[in-house]
Amino acid sequence: MSVTIDDIRAAADRLAGHIERTPCRPSRTLSQITGANVWVKFENLQFTAAFKERGALNKLLQLSASEQKRGVIAASAGNHAQGLSYHGQRLGVPVTIVMPVQTPVVKVEHTRHFGAEVILHGETYDDANAYAREICNQRDLVFVHPFDDADVIAGQGTIALEMLEDAPDIDVLPVPIGGGGLISGMATAAKAVKPDIEVIGVEAAMYPSFTARMRGFRPNIGGQTIAEGIAVKTVGELTYAIARPLLSDVLLIEESDFERAVALYVNVEKTVAEGAGAASLAALLAYPERFRGRNVGLVLCGGNIDTRLLASVLTRELIRERRMTSFRIIGDDRPGLLATVSAVIGGAGGNIIEVSHNRLSLDVPAKGAEFDIMVETRDSKHTDEITEALRQHGYPPRTI
Amino acid sequence: MSVTIDDIRAAADRLAGHIERTPCRPSRTLSQITGANVWVKFENLQFTAAFKERGALNKLLQLSASEQKRGVIAASAGNHAQGLSYHGQRLGVPVTIVMPVQTPVVKVEHTRHFGAEVILHGETYDDANAYAREICNQRDLVFVHPFDDADVIAGQGTIALEMLEDAPDIDVLPVPIGGGGLISGMATAAKAVKPDIEVIGVEAAMYPSFTARMRGFRPNIGGQTIAEGIAVKTVGELTYAIARPLLSDVLLIEESDFERAVALYVNVEKTVAEGAGAASLAALLAYPERFRGRNVGLVLCGGNIDTRLLASVLTRELIRERRMTSFRIIGDDRPGLLATVSAVIGGAGGNIIEVSHNRLSLDVPAKGAEFDIMVETRDSKHTDEITEALRQHGYPPRTI
């Protein structure tokens, strides 16, 4: 059992008109920043804001009449659940989704909104998945695996067909790996259409499941990554078998590069990527020498980032750019110290957004005072000016 | 002197191939939320992320050879500066931009990056503008007004041509008004192509300059709006004369609706709008009855929102949705109070992100303690559960 270019072309025919033919646009600014020639495929413009619809729909469209009537089931709290439920509803196929108990109600409701029956069960994804298998047998449903399924893989592969149609010059594709559905489909399609194209896997450093399998080690897998969409502990059997021979390498991405990539998509492309959705760009940022001067196709594969997380990533970017800085001031504990320091900062055009006193800290003289002032500035040059102004007034700050 | 549909068609021919033919897509989710049939024109996908390129380029392309050599000048710290500088550089026309002294260096550098000479002068926009007029005369340059100029207006009008080409069913256009360049161009084009279309102006409630002129009153204009791109104190003469007879009404938008619109664009459309860029959607949210059941074309006219502002808008949206809540707890000031309350919140699945003590507050008994705990929750139902848990443990919280 494998997946061929003909399967992927057949999937493309099946999907035509039922999913978005998303744009694949060159980005001059990302090209300038990274030194590569960059194209971006905006799969975050699918209706459910992620590529997962392709595989799910390709699966649904191949069910027998009796299977369509009985319905499908999957375990997922993410994009696969949305994609399957949305297209199931469109086609009149009953969809059951099992999610862990702690799933945010907003995700449950999104999925119910598409007419799916949502069952909350288990503490972890693995628990939910095991229960989904059980229900699947009991109710005689069709299990739709999020990645380790030939029809799902063929559906995801259609992305590469579209990219090479729109931008035939692309010669390297860094593709995110979670369970491997996206990369096995895309690599199969890309290598068939353009045999000398290079396909490179991209994994979160906390979840190097493909790398581990490839290199034969057992890593410590786990942790809180912002790329939750590719935080998969075990790569698929089928996906691994397909993708392994087609990949030249797999790159591991640290959290800070995911964050920079999400922030860059917002600031430069004015588009919203989830952590996993920004993985291809993160690879370009983390390993620029691998891509310099080449024609790189990035697949922005999903845009479902939690609002809170996005706000936090953007704020952290400001701290990284030194447009928000925490100054630690140590002075004599006399009335008027804060007033003086505030006046210096305000006079230099800084905007104080938070002050906290640490009177009890032992690294301050007993009659001294220490406080931290969080200041917004216009830019890092402005931050330097404020630092200098504080120094000149006798309060050399430490930056924290 | 006026602007005709022929001027706008001529502008469209001039611009073709030199600006992005941005997509105009229907939005099912925004339609569902607002009860109207909504299309969105993504002008934030222009290279400089705003529609201003159209007017600026239409102006540049009509300069005489001698004018092109001498160069152009404008006062702007925003999208007009970027659009003019970018196309000036492309065409080899020298561009001078005057900005107020306090302009963030990042904006200065963006503009210099496009080869413009940036002069920092004056405290306010008006000061910078007066100085630009002076330099213009001294150096014999061509002044490119950001809105009150027939060629600029004709350029902006091309947006409406494209929208009605892509979505001929649109029957009402709510269009942001700052100085009036966008709406006078778009209304001229739309009414010529489809005489029974309705064009409605949209102004920030803090800057009702068009409304004031129309209704003959002198309002208190000013204030910190997130729609800084349309925070213009005086509408143009030419733009007013053109637009006034073509508009059925002007709607005023409060800050909270701008914020909701920016957040909706991020959450639903996965796209980044600046405050002024989200004004059309804000109008739909603020006055749903005006648009219900109709075919509404929204022009998302710019995406250059400050990162810090965007992060803050998204965070405020979480507070509005009650996914971030500050609980005020009053208890007895004994060791272990915070531990108990934290345990209750943690046990109910809430995530404490900030604690502040107000031991000295007079509305607390002398031997009591008061503190505010900022908690992240999954959703508003979860917030209710945590409130209830605190109540049951004897610490009924006040929400702030």
Strand neighbour order, sheet with most strands of chain A: 5-4-3-6
Radius of gyration of chain A: 25 Å
Q: Let me know the number of strands of chain A.
A: 14
Structural class from helices and strands of chain A?
alpha/beta
Roughly what is the average pLDDT of chain A, rounded to an integer? 93
Unreliable stretches covering 5 or more consecutive residues of chain A = none
Sheet bearing the most strands of chain A, described? 4 strands, parallel
Assembly state of the chains shown = homodimer
User: What is the terminal separation of chain A in angstroms?
Assistant: 56 Å
Helix count, DSSP H or I runs of 4 or more residues of chain A: 17
- SS strand fraction of chain A: 15-25%
Helix content estimate of chain A: 40-55%
Please state the overall shape of chain A, judged from the principal axes of the Cα atoms.
elongated
Quick one: which chains have the greatest interface?
A: A-B, 34 and 34 residues
